[in-house]
Design goal:
Elements: H1 2-14, E1 18-21, E2 27-34, E3 36-37, E4 56-58, E5 74-77, E6 93-99, E7 101-102, E8 105-115, E9 119-121, E10 125-127, E11 130-137, E12 142-151, E13 168-178, E14 227-228, E15 240-241, E16 268-271, E17 279-285, E18 289-297, E19 302-311, E20 314-320, E21 333-340, E22 345-352
Parallel strand pairs: 3-10, 4-6, 5-13, 14-15
Antiparallel strand pairs: 1-2, 2-8, 6-11, 7-8, 8-12, 9-11, 10-11, 12-13, 16-17, 17-20, 18-19, 18-21, 21-22
Amino acid sequence: MHVQKNIVLKILLRAIITTLSFIAAQTYSLIQGNVDELVLNDSLNDFRTCPGYVDSCLYVCDDGTFNPCHPQNIYTIAIDTSTNDQESTAGSRYRIYFPWAYEGLTANKFTVTASWPCLSPTAVYASGDYAFWDIYGNSECPGTVQGSIWYGQDCEDEYGNIGSNDCLELVGRFCFASGDTLNWNEYADQSISTDTCDDCWMSSPAWSYYSSNIYSDSLLYPEYCEYYDHCHHSYSDTILCGVGYMDGFDTSSVSITEENKASINILLGNYPNPFNSSTKIYYEVPSSGHMKIDIIDINGRLINTIVNNVQKAGNYVSYWDGKNKNEMIVPSGVYLCVLKTKNFITSNKLIILK
């Protein structure tokens, strides 16, 4: 009975996954929405139990003691090769538990972001004392996942942004070694025994854009990393990453990617922010070359391009009038101003309030 119910749920959940491409060529699977209560026969109301159709259950975040909850373990997960009418492949499915109630409030909204194609996430559900979501191994590569659960009532604003100043948020961040590490790409460390799951374990982790969310908590921002211990399959050429970069004693013969590349700092900012109709964008060009500034929304969609030409070194001021490329005024919300040169990319969060 569990297997049949699980198969139906798995088909429905996978159908709502959205794949997003963000800055620096990193691709994610993102799911967000309501935390729905389920009636399961897993006796979750009475005691902890890991259902037979789930390979491993992680309870490290289930009491809401740590925020963000970020265990150092790197969990190995198999690749799910099953089809829609089959049970998931052995070892390919993890379930991550959070509390159903936190500080007297119950789970209301969620956002789950995972590295794609390494990991395939599901939506967040609730049963008994827990809220939970599942992770499937999807492709052989190092993967990360972030789950953000909001507690309270109506934790979403009128523009569809998940979160609220009247709600509380719990965040969980995890690392997974998907498939056989010997099949990872040539830049990834094939021996992870000395690795630790932190913000710098892999280039562009799933939580690297947490700060771009309008209701994100500055106390929960991830660490800024100048280099990463591993390269993701879609890492950017401007990211310092390699094989065991932070371990110090890994013996792989693969060299560090762009280890001697000089760091580049480009100033980017805007005023006013938040703004109502238009904002000035201040930026610096360190050396002559092609400069491009795009405005994108939080889902990675291009809204407008405000600079796209060759410029000499110096300080510049441009502006955005809050319109898209079709001269239509965009709705209130959070947007990203993305500055790109041949060898560098940076971004700044813009907030429109009307």
